[in-house]
Predict the structure.
Amino acid sequence: EKESTLAMIKPDGLNYTDDVKRIVNDFGFSILRELTVQLDEDEVKVFYSEHSKRSFFPNLVKYMTSGPVFVMVLEKVNAVSDWRDLIGPTDARKAKITHPHSIRAMCGLDSERNCVHGSDSLQSATREISFFFRRIVSTEGRVSK
Ligand code: CMP
């Protein structure tokens, strides 16, 4: 069964957009939607609300508003976990050692500046897709076109 997930290239990764899109295509994802947008502080606080109590949250808000992000809705069988596997661990420093072929190893810097995002579950994917693409109705990970 096909799923949809939200992939985001963060402000520090925008120069890698072409490389990331090549990987997206090579691994068989379809890009259903794409969008470049400058997030404001309130939007980042909503998108990352589950992290609002963490000590790194203020820095995360600064980082995510430091420039535009590039957002894609990716579709394929197992899209959520396959995209998470491709981006690698949250800490890009670790990724460079343990997952040298991952996207975060390619363009990330550390545990904050990790250049890309991927939904961590089908439930998160539905929420995150509707955050950016309000007119898409999503059920069980499948986005209607
Ligand atoms: P992401 O996978 O998009 O989800 C939450 C983000 O918070 C994460 O990527 C990082 O950008 C940031 N983050 C997570 N853990 C830390 C940490 N320990 N220190 C700083 N930033 C973090």
Q: What stands out?
A: The mean pLDDT is 95.
